[in-house]
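Exercise 7. Given the encoded structure of a 869-residue chain, write a plausible sequence.
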């Protein structure tokens, strides 16, 4: 139908065109003729200036012109008709060609997978049947409004139809092309509508076409891809966020090994502002990563598809850090094309420090183990010797070269057996196999005792090593076992000793329970062994024997000694007087482990004896005091008549009453000598009495020691001469002035010289001397007389004591006693060196600058002085 419309339209157009052209031609001719007539009317006077001639000429002229015009019209009409016929033929040919083109185009459009709407220049519309099928329309599309559909299941939805209608109006009215996505009523299908103006060859009229493409499947694919892209974008954002949260610097390189992406840890590590700045300036975490050698390594890794790891030192956050950079090649999953590399930097500073510390620890551990006296050996999982200390080498006597070669465990056992350093075994191969089974079967430490042929006993500990293999510890316990035997013997002896003591012993633990006791303890406190065997508490023990305490305070004191304040624990002792008239001495001794040792001793009999002895001692002291007083008074009473005898004897010796013969002079001399000796004894007794009474006061002064020695020597010169004894003096030149009581020092030296002369034989030698020391002065008198037995060297300084080898009547035993007393009053000491038959040496050590003081109160001295006056 649309093709018939197209043909009719073309024919009518050609006939009308011919008619129009002829009409126009005739009109043009008429207009030309009229123009000529008007021209003649206007110009006729000029052409023909004379009247009649002018009219006739004008008519003749018009007839000729008309004829010419008519001929022109005829010729023009014929030419026009011919032209029309020619143009008609061309139009028919053109129309035929256009018809063929349109038919071909429509056939092509119908065979297409797309639907269309087509309008010609006469607003005739053609529609593709496929469009009605797509839109589920009940009839073919005849006009644009059919695309609305008759119900909710057909046609375009309202919004899509309105959009299409507006676009078609603008296309046909203004020639605006368009392209929109439309949906059907079900909104399940999507179509693309693209409208544009088309021009048919040979026609100047515009045609319009709207193409419809079913994009439902493409839309589903696109939506699916968009969903995937959304998911991928979300995953990318998530991965980006995760990568930024990772503390390790991570970055990507392209195929040219240039940076293409970094995470925030990388940005922070290189101290950049942001990711863009890092990529723009190509800031490398390790500046040397992309030098010539670094690029070669990266390209080789891409080529060989191998990861490579490098370790560098970089400065991060102002501190030098060790990083381990991992470089992993990336390849396209489709064409296996290298995409670049993913890299990450692992901070191994702490790891390196830990490894270094572990290395130092291993070295220190090995050094520590090497210094142990216990032999240590570590065998690896392959049963080879991995470590041994010097004690192991010394214990087994094996060569260092053998041990350093990491021998097998079995080889070491064979060497030890050859050296007879293993316990004797009836079946050595079986024993060796048992030792080797520990590598696979031992789960807990195992302890054995090895008794070697040389009587050495070893404690062997075998335990699994944490790194595999076995750890052996060999401890020589020979001495320890001997010590244990000795200790057990000693403990048994002490136990028996403790059980046989008369002193009660009890040990209380920190919590007050009884840990140890002996039978004497049970006897003293009258406690049954069954009760004590239960290890009762101190409170229960005190409760059992509460009747044996005089008061609750004594019982509380016992409780406090055991469970008192720990900070105040100290040695304590005391005495208990029990109601049964027994007396118990106790002592509390805090022990190092927090326990308390309590000892109890029944001193009832001792107290009774002590009381008796005290009473006797008081009586003896009173007797001794009476004796001293008696001696003092008797000495005084004896000295007065003796002074009279000496005085009268001196008068007789001076012959004031007349001359004396030789015998009389000898008698008088003997009387004076005996009187002087007796007076000396009386003075010595008086001095001892005053010293014992504590009333002797020293009178210190500075004097020349040499003069003092000379005075003393002159005093005993007669005795020296009588026995032919030589007196030598040994006093240094620098020792002259001394500080002491001159009178008492004279007595010391006199008594020492007198004793030396008494016990030295005729022709003997006596030496008196002195020595200066840092803080003391040593005076000594030495002889080569009879000497003193060693057993009597201590007692000769007591009053009235003489040596057993002293001849009877020779000495009263007061001289050395006075020497000791006077020396000690000076703050010094007396030493005696004597060898029987070879002589005696007495040394008096006196301080250089003694303080002047009275040794005791002068009460008795005043009493004695009053009695003597």
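Solution.
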């Amino acid at each position: 139908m649309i093709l018939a419309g197209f043909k009719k339209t073309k024919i009518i157009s050609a006939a009308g065109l011919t008619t129009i052209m002829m009409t126009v031609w005739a009109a043009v001719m008429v207009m030309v003729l009229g123009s000529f007539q008007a021209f003649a009317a206007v110009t006729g006077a000029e052409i023909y200036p004379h009247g009649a001639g002018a009219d006739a000429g004008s008519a003749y002229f018009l007839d000729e012109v008309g004829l010419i015009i008519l001929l022109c019209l005829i010729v023009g009409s014929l030419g026009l008709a011919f032209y029309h016929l020619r143009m008609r033929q061309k139009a028919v040919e053109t129309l035929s060609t256009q018809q063929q083109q349109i038919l071909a185009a429509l056939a092509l459009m119908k065979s297409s997978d797309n639907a269309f709407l087509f309008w010609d220049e006469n607003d005739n519309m053609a529609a593709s049947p496929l469009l009605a099928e797509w839109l589920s329309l009940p009839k073919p599309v005849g006009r644009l409004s059919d695309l609305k559909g008759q119900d909710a299941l057909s046609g375009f939805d309202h919004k899509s139809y309105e959009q299409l209608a507006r676009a078609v109006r603008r296309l046909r009215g203004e020639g605006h092309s368009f392209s929109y996505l439309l949906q059907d009523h079900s909104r399940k299908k999507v179509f693309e509508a693209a409208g544009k103006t088309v021009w048919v060859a040979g026609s100047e009229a515009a045609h319009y076409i709207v193409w419809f493409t079913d994009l439902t499947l493409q839309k589903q694919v696109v939506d699916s891809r968009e969903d995937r892209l959304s998911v991928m974008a979300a995953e990318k954002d998530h991965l980006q966020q995760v990568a930024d949260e990772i503390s390790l610097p991570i970055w990507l390189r392209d195929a040219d090994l240039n940076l293409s992406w970094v995470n925030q840890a990388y940005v922070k590590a290189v101290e950049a502002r942001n990711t863009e700045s890092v990529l723009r300036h190509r800031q490398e975490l390790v500046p040397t990563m992309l030098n010539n050698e670094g690029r070669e390594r990266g390209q080789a890794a891409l080529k060989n598809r191998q990861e490579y790891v490098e370790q560098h030192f970089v400065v991060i956050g102002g501190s030098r850090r060790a990083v381990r950079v991992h470089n992993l090649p990336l390849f396209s999953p489709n064409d296996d094309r290298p995409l670049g590399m993913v890299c990450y930097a692992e901070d191994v500073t702490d790891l390196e420090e830990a490894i270094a510390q572990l290395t130092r620890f291993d070295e220190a551990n090995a050094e520590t183990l090497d210094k142990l006296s216990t032999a240590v050996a570590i065998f690896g999982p392959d049963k080879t010797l991995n470590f041994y200390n010097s004690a192991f080498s010394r214990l087994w006597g094996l060569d260092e070269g053998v041990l350093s070669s990491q021998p097998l465990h079995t080889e070491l056992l064979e060497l030890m057996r050859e050296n007879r350093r293993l316990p004797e075994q009836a079946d050595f191969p079986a024993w060796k196999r048992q030792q080797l089974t520990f590598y696979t079967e031992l789960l807990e430490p195992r302890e054995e005792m090895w008794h070697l042929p040389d009587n050495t006993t070893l404690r062997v500990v075998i335990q699994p090593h944490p790194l595999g293999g076995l750890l052996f510890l060999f401890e020589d316990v020979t001495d320890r076992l001997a010590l244990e035997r000795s200790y057990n013997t000693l403990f048994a002896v002490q136990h028996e000793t403790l059980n046989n003591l008369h002193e009660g012993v009890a040990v209380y633990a920190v919590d007050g329970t009884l840990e140890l006791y002996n039978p004497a303890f049970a006897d003293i406190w009258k406690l049954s062994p069954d009760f004590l065997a239960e290890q009762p508490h101190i409170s229960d023990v005190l409760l059992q024997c509460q009747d044996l305490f005089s008061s609750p305070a004594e019982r509380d004191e016992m409780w406090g000694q055991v469970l008192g304040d720990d900070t105040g624990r100290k040695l304590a002792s005391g005495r208990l007087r029990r109601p049964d008239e027994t007396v118990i001495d106790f002592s509390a001794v805090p022990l190092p482990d927090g326990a308390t040792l309590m000892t109890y001793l029944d001193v009832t009999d001792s107290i009774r004896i002590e009381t008796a002895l005290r009473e006797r001692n008081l009586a003896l002291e009173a007797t001794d005091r009476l004796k001293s007083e008696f001696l003092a008074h008797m000495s005084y009473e004896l000295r007065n008549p003796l002074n009279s005898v000496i005085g009268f004897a001196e008068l007789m010796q001076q012959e004031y009453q007349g001359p004396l013969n030789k015998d009389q002079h000898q008698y008088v001399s003997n009387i004076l000598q005996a009187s002087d000796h007796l007076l000396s004894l009386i003075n010595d007794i008086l001095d001892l009495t005053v010293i014992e009474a504590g009333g002797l006061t020293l009178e210190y002064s500075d004097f020349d020691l040499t003069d003092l020695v000379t005075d003393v020597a002159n005093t005993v010169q007669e005795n020296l001469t009588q026995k032919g004894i030589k007196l030598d003096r040994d006093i240094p030149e620098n020792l002259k002035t001394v500080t002491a009581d001159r009178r008492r020092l004279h007595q010391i030296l006199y008594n020492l010289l007198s004793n030396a002369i008494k016990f030295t034989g005729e022709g003997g030698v006596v030496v008196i001397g002195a020595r200066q020391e840092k803080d003391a002065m040593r005076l000594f008198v030495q002889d080569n007389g009879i000497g003193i037995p060693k057993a009597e060297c201590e007692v000769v300084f007591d009053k009235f004591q003489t040596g057993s080898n002293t001849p009877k009547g020779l000495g009263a035993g007061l001289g050395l006693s006075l020497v000791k007393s006077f020396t000690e009053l000076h703050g010094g000491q007396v030493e005696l060196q004597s060898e029987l038959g070879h002589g005696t040496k007495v040394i008096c050590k006196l301080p250089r600058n003694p303080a002047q003081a009275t040794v005791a109160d002068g009460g008795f001295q005043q009493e004695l002085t009053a009695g003597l006056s």
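Remark. The longest helix spans residues 51-111. Students should compare their own answers with the one above.
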